[in-house]
Structure formats: structure tokens, C-alpha cells
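Standup notes
- DV: blocked on the single-chain target, sequence here:
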Amino acid sequence: MTALIASPSTLERHITLTVPVDKIEVAYQQHLAKIAKTAKANGFRPGKMPLSHVEGQYGLAAREKAFSDVIQRSLYETIAEHKLRPASTPAVEVTKADPGQPLEFIARFEIFPEIDQVHFNVKTMDKKVAVIADEDIQHAIDRLTEKYVSWEKVDRAAALKDQVVIDFKGSMNGEFFAGGEAHDFTVVLGSKSMIPGFEEGILGMTPGEDKIIKVTFPEQYHSQELAGKVAEFAIKLHKVSEPVRPELDSALIQKIGIKSGDKNELIAQVRKSLELECQRVMNAKMTSALFDLIVEQNPIEVPKALVEREKKRLHDEWHPHHKGHDHDHGHSEEELAVLDAPAQRSAVLGLLIAALIRQYKLTPDQSRVQKHILQLAESYENPTQVIAWYSKNKEALDKIAMQVMEEQLVEKLLENIKIIEKPCAFQSLMAE
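- DV (later): unblocked, structure below
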């Protein structure tokens, strides 16, 4: 067997392989013998058909299987011999497959880049630090009681936080577009549930009023036909209602989930929850800033196939409720195009993190892995079942272990960095 390896680019590899006839013949005879064990035909018992009959009836199928086996085996032997690390499944093109002649084929694929050393030189880093204020707790309690708010009809102009009932019909260049029309539609002004400018355009309208507003669809809108385009919406306002917030008494506190109905206990639980979330966000921002510096200091080329996989993963992570999407189909070019930059960063970062973990010889701290699993399990009705599931699910367990190693890596990198704390308001931190 001879192999010629070409490198059209830094990460592309083309392997041209020529496999001798004898190897193909051995594989062919093996498949014929296997078929012969169960082959059935009139006049013969199963497994007793003469090999000449088997070859006449199943020879073509056996040769195809022989070719497939020989291609796979010889290709991966060559890949292993030359210590290549394919980043995608090789695309195979058979160039010669004549009877009694050597088999020739070309395999094209990308490889992962070789990363010998990840550079990281940072002396100081800023860290935003927030503390929970009384107004943050009140804001959180207001959010908890939002679903118990009632709406009282008013005869005045629509204001921020009012609930309005409207009809609307959208057009672009005088043409109505699909999905741009609704009747008796309810929206809370300031909820940001509509595209930017839509809710703002309703402010100040009075019941019975008609108005035409102009809005611009976001550049990253899910419909490519509308993304970045200016549209007009004809709006008719039917009704304005203002929110009536219920009294925070023991009955409402119990509905929220505090069995005692005690306001002080509610405040204490809300404070604890906000402090945990604040710590999580501060750490996440610090980690993100740290990873940005690693990417900046280590420019590397990544396989196109890896970036494409990252696009699909990010799309499914950000849009988990989209139906009809699987790993190979259902992702439109428009949906994936907006993910070019984050997918590229994610692919680069993933390779650099893996290289740093090898560089520092890190292994997952098993006590931390178990702690992560326990924290996840606590949010379910039956924590014991969740813990048992993780113990049997290697893929899920590996993901937790990788998270732990990333945490350990961040701690390792921060050991020699001076952290400069920058105070900020909790709401400002969360808004970012």
C-alpha cells in the first residue's frame, strides 16, 4: 500500500492511497465466506450453497463491502501512522476500482492544529464587584409578584408599564408581509417583547386612536427577509389598563413559596438568591474577560468543520424550542450566518483551553465534580434519581468534569494576576 499526503492549506490534508489487489481479494473472499454461512437458494440448505453459486448471486455486494472495508482500514492505518488528527469525517473519492487492478482513492479532510504552547502574559485585571442593596431586593420581590398583578382599565393615554390591546398590520414598501398582522393583541409597554421601537411608538396613544409607526427590524432578526429592514405598522389602540400590584401580605408570600408567610424570611431568601446570582455573574464576567485575553494572545487557525459544528451547537443552545432541527438538517444559512463570530471564538477557545489543561496537567477534582452534581440535583423533585442518572451517563459526567477543569484552569491562571476590584451597582452588572 502506498500513500501520498498533500497539504493544500495549513489544516487541509489530501491522502491518495493505492491498495494492492491481494488485499482487496482477501477482503472479498472473507465477505463471500461470511455470506455463504447463511445464504439460501432453492435446492440448497442454508449455508450449503456452493461458493461459485454464492459468488454469482452475491459477488457484487461482497466486492462493494470489500472495497468499503479496505478503504476504511487503510485510511485509518495511514492516519494513525502519520499521527494526523482529523477534525472532520474524511470525504472519500474512489478514482480507480477496476477488476483485478489496485484500488485507488483520495481522502480529503481537515486536521486539528498543533498547539505546543499557549502563551498567557497578564499582570492585572479589573473585576466588577457589586453588593446587594435594599432596592435590589425590592426589585426582585416586585418581579416575584408580577404574575399576581391585576389590570384595571383606564381612560387615558398609554404609559410605560401599561397593558394595551391593539390591532396592527405591518408593511414594507407598501407591501404587507406574512406574520405582520394581529387583532386584539395584548402587550405590556416596556416589556421589550416586541422589536425595538414598536412599544415606544404606542406610548401616548389613547383608546380608539389610529397611528402609523416606523420601526427597523434588528440585523440579527430570525427572518432574513425582514432583518435590518424598515417597516411601517398601522396600529389601532383599543384598550389601556394600568397595573394594580397586590399587597405583600402573608397570603401572597405563601403563594410565592414561603410557607411561613413571613416577610423577613422572604427578604432573607431573596437576598441569598441575589448574592449567589451576583457571585455567579461576577465570576462569569471575569472568566469571559480572561478567555478573551487568551484568544487575543494566541491567534490560531481552526478547521472550518469545527466552526460549522459550533454554529449548530450554539444555535440549538440559544434556540432550544426550535422544532425540526437535528444535527445535520434544519439549520438555515440565514440562522447560522449570524453565528460566524461567536462560533469562531468558541472553536478557538475550546482548542486553547484543551491545550492549557494539557499544559498544566490538570485533572478534574472529583470532590468538585460531585458537588456540581449535587447542586444540579437539588433543583429537581427527586435528587437521588438525578445523581443516579449522572453516575450511569458517561457523556453527561464528562461535561461536568470539563466544567470543573475549566474552573481549575481559571483559578490557576489567576494565581499570578493582580485583581483590581471596580465597584458597580447590581442592576448595572446584571444589565450588561
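- Follow-up: The chain has a mean pLDDT of 90.
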